[in-house]
Design brief:
With 196 residues, the chain is mostly helical. The protein has helices at 7-13, 17-57, 74-87, 106-120, 123-127, 136-147, 152-159, 163-169, 171-176, 178-195.
């Protein structure tokens, strides 16, 4: 270490023992800061690369520049409009931005999500896997659509899934709606029988 600089080396740089020790402490702090900044820079480069890849890759299993229409109910349109009215949009058109400007990185919304869970959920709910990641909202939304009676074909279209993917990942929600479907069919058959 720098504390062990010999007298000949000190003569070359013309510093005293105490100065050499103090300088070594400063150098250690600087080295630690450089290492920390290097880690932060690597993390930031990874986040930026992830964001660029996410934006550049386009839609899953679709042509690179393809788009898809995502119909949303009027109540959600109202909420988005209120958000834009209150917070605006970035110059590049992005709706949600980082606190310091620029693209919102997963680290930032992950931290906000954790804080929101602690505020909104009971202690036992927060300790559970309930809505543990923001992506849980997508699953909850698709399940809600299915359980509210929206046809699986329409749910798949809105979610950007194939019917096969929908049935594979949301089979529980689909099976829960079977009783309701059976009841509807039963009522229709009874009504048809009654009419004849």
């Amino acid at each position: 270490m720098t504390e062990q600089i010999g007298s000949s080396e000190r003569e070359l740089v013309n510093i005293r023992n105490g100065e050499a020790v103090a300088a070594s402490a400063v150098i250690r702090e600087m080295a630690a800061t450089v290492a920390r900044l290097g880690r932060e820079a690597r993390n930031l480069r990874h986040e930026v690369a992830t964001l660029r890849a996410r934006v550049a890759r386009g839609l899953k299993k679709r042509a690179r520049k393809s788009t898809r229409s995502v119909p949303i109910p009027p109540v959600l349109v109202r909420l988005v409009r209120e958000h834009i009215k209150e917070f605006g949009a970035a110059e590049d058109g992005w709706l949600f931005r980082a606190a310091q400007g620029g693209h919102l990185l997963s680290k930032e919304y992950g931290e906000a999500w954790k804080a929101a869970r602690l505020t909104a959920l009971t202690e036992s709910e927060a300790a559970s896997p309930l809505a543990d990641v923001p992506y849980s909202l997508r699953h909850a939304g698709v399940s809600l659509w299915l359980e509210s009676g929206v046809s699986p074909a329409e749910v798949a279209r809105r979610a950007g899934h194939s019917i096969a993917v929908l049935f594979r990942f949301y089979a529980k929600a689909i099976h829960r709606s079977q009783k309701r479907s059976n009841d509807q069919i039963q009522r229709a058959l009874e009504a048809a029988e009654h009419d004849t």
